[in-house]
Amino acid sequence: MNRSNAKDRLDRLEQLTAILKSEDALTTKTIAAELNVSERTLFRDIGVLRERGLPIEADKGRGGGIKLHRNWGAGRLSLENQEMIDLLISLAIAESMGPTLFMGNINTVRHKLMASFSPKQKDKIHQLRQRIHIGEQASPDVLQSFSMKKHETNATIETLHTAFLFNQRLSIVYHDFHDQETQREIEAHYLYLGFPVWYLLAWDHLRNDVRIFRYDRIKKADILPQEFTLRPLKDFNAILTKQNVSTL
After folding, report:
1. Same structural domain for residues 242 and 153?
2. Pairing mode, if any, of strands 197-204 and 65-68?
3. Most confident of the ranges 19-23, 30-34, 105-109, 230-234
4. Domain tally for the chain?
5. Could you tell me which residue ranges the HTH deoR-type domain spans (predicted)?
6. Which of 83, 119, 196, 232 has the fewest CB atoms nearer than 10 Å to its CB?
7. Is there a domain that residue 74 lies in?
8. Which helix (H) or strand (E) holds 125?
9. pTM of the model
């Protein structure tokens, strides 16, 4: 094996290790496709990793599931609670946006980050992916009225993200299109991006109905003790169809 081929294999083994650490169970076909190798080559690489002490369980039968032994433990990132919340949501957002100019290696990044998360944190990321949606770019009218002043919004956004992640009800002060201020109690079910404007798809207890709230118009947010059960996205289809979010 020449030096170039040896380096390629070492890189591939590192990628394979990250993939196995980041997921529960994947098929050989899925992993081989991601690594751009044959399943036969994949099983040879698995043999090498086993020799290095990685406890890999592989089933060559139907489906060809591969996973690490359930008692295997990965090293964990040492992060503060808010840092972990921001990282979980940012990772889910990046994946929801799909391939972009500066995120060509998102799969590799995800596998390496996921390898450092606990099983509970991994489950949370999988759930978050389904709750973050990317739409059309904001219209000129929206951009004209859009304003996010960092020093004013950091604490509010942290509160919104925490409530979103842990399914907790929120009390917010909201300024509508006419700059009328109202106090609302809401459940933040989904996030929607009409770049660069973020929206909450929420259940509004004041209106007893689904509503859309622009992030930059939420002036204050407090977490309430009540938790909520996630509503299906179809509950919000009517309001998304009725109103063009990119113009709100």
Report:
1. yes
2. unpaired
3. 230-234
4. 3
5. 9-67
6. 232
7. no
8. helix 119-129
9. 0.59
